[in-house]
Design brief:
The protein is of the alpha+beta class. The chain contains two helices and two strands; from the N terminus they run αββα.
């Protein structure tokens, strides 16, 4: 948790022998990403229905 706190809201990558094994993002950033993906999906539905 100390590393996550030091990341100050940025992505945290966990490495194993210099290979990324895990990425962690703050909950707020994840929620924002989910909302943006939902907006993209809804825009695609609108585009399909329009034309």
């Amino acid at each position: 948790m100390a590393v996550v706190k030091q990341a100050d809201g940025f992505l945290v990558a966990v490495l194993n022998r210099n290979k990324s094994e895990f990425y962690g993002i703050p909950a707020d950033a994840y929620a924002d990403l989910r909302h943006k993906l939902e907006d993209i999906e809804l825009a695609q539905i609108v585009e399909e229905r329009i034309g």
